[in-house]
Design a protein that fits this description.
heterodimer, A: alpha+beta, three-stranded antiparallel beta sheet, 4 helices, globular, B: alpha+beta, seven-stranded antiparallel beta sheet, elongated
């Protein structure tokens, strides 16, 4: 079935954990985005610069300093992206972020859900956030 | 009810028209030549699936529904499958509504003789109160939609098109939907509905946005002028796009296009209608097309 929903795999997973595509909407929405603690954020009024340390694989790692590969990468967020970043506080679930986006920008629930999961996926790919899943009623557990 | 939610309740497609229950949304779709389906959710709860397909002869609908349910039981509850006899049925509006017992799927079926189309709803869990409050009004909202001009209402896009226009393609990105129709004579009409209006228009005016959208669609923008559409602020843009007929592709001829875009601040949406095709084919007036 083609869809408005690309079902992005927003959850980082450990071996044996279910793929995001295998999870229900409810399970994905209960996940909690958490900022990468190693990210250095410089926030201004209308924008923020986020600097994330880069890590290289086992082949490149010993050569990184020799080749003078850069050790950090910076991203500039503004507008809606910055609003979302500010909402990621390690407490708010994906669902609450979706509800906030839907209400703030007059979107339907699933429009906001797809936009939010796509954006969080992008932040994850850049190493700015990780998304933790909640199992049962217990504490959040990283998938 | 906010107007942007009210608008997505309208569903009119191949020969059928419904008013969806509040908060139901399409989360998946599939279109093929003689069949198609939509999947509906209310937040995280699956609410139903609407399937249509062309059936040359009048089908035995109760038997089909019984068989669908029997197969469901064979997978989900094999012990029940062996004792299952038939679904309970009632007529709701023009539909045959069928159910087994609470918690199991319910079904609704309608055969449209004029278009030889079998229309079937599958609701994942039957619940009497929910059926009375939500499903029955949904089924009763059904209206045939095969007369021309035909309504096309999907993802908040709402059009009324005359006979030569047929569905060509859909791009349902989140809060950015584009649906394209075409005639046999290569006149293309694209309707857009764009959300996040404040963010989109933060660094760009309507004319600039229109120019950018058309350029992305491989068009050459010629001119644009401010207009008003049904009391809303808008822009009308003349553009050109490479011809798609064989000779025109060879000679590199450009087809003239006419596009309107307007901003509905109450709904928080930007709408657009684009028409492009061979020069001699008359364009539709947006006011006649937009539902």
């Amino acid at each position: 079935m083609s869809s408005a929903d690309p079902s992005p795999p927003i959850l980082a997973r450990k071996r044996g954990a279910p793929k995001a595509a295998d999870l229900s909407y409810a399970e994905r929405l209960a996940a909690i985005p958490v900022r990468n603690q190693r990210v250095e954020a410089v926030e201004l009024q209308d924008a923020a610069t986020l600097t994330v340390p880069l890590s290289y694989g086992p082949v490149l790692r010993p050569l990184a300093s020799l080749l003078k590969l850069r050790r950090t990468k910076s991203y500039r967020l503004d507008g809606l992206g910055l609003e979302v970043w500010r909402k990621v506080d390690g407490v708010a679930t994906v669902e609450s972020l979706v509800d906030w986006l839907a209400q703030e920008h007059r979107l339907s629930f699933h429009e906001a859900r797809v936009l939010m999961t796509m954006y969080l996926q992008m932040l994850m790919e850049r190493g700015l956030v990780v998304v933790a899943g909640r199992t049962g009623a217990g504490l959040p557990e990283r998938l | 009810m906010p107007p942007y939610i009210e608008r997505i309740r309208r569903l009119s497609w191949r020969g059928f028209s419904f008013t969806l229950p509040l908060w139901w949304e399409i989360t998946g779709h599939h279109f093929a030549n003689d069949e198609g389906q939509f999947q509906f959710y209310e937040r995280v709860r699956p609410r139903g699936q609407l399937v249509w397909r062309t059936v040359p002869q009048t089908p035995d609908q109760p038997r089909i529904l019984d068989e669908v349910h029997r197969r469901f039981l064979a997978k989900a509850a094999p012990a029940d499958a062996s004792v299952f006899a038939a679904l309970s049925t009632s007529v709701v509006g023009q539909f045959l509504f069928a159910w087994h017992r609470p918690g199991l799927p319910a079904y609704a079926s309608l055969y449209q003789h004029s278009t030889r189309t079998l229309l079937q709803w599958i609701f994942p869990e039957h619940d009497e109160a929910f059926a009375a409050s939500t499903l029955l009004p949904l089924l009763e909202s059904f209206r045939p939609n095969h007369a021309w001009p035909r309504r096309h209402e999907l993802f908040g896009v709402s059009l009324q098109l005359p006979e030569p226009f047929a569905f060509e393609a859909i791009s349902p990105e989140p809060a950015n939907v584009a649906i394209t129709f075409e005639t046999a004579k290569d006149l293309h009409l694209t309707a857009r509905r764009i959300g996040l209006d404040r963010a989109v228009l933060a660094g760009l005016d309507l004319a600039g946005l229109h120019r950018r959208l058309l350029s992305r669609a491989r068009s050459r923008v010629m001119s644009s002028q401010p207009v008003e559409f049904r009391g809303l602020r808008g822009v009308r843009t003349a553009f050109e796009r490479r011809g798609e007929r064989r000779m025109e592709m060879l000679t590199g001829a450009w087809w003239p296009g006419d596009a309107w875009m307007w901003h509905d601040p109450t709904e928080g949406r930007i709408y657009a209608i684009e028409q492009v095709g061979p020069p001699k084919h008359p364009r539709l007036e947006p006011d006649d097309v937009v539902g």
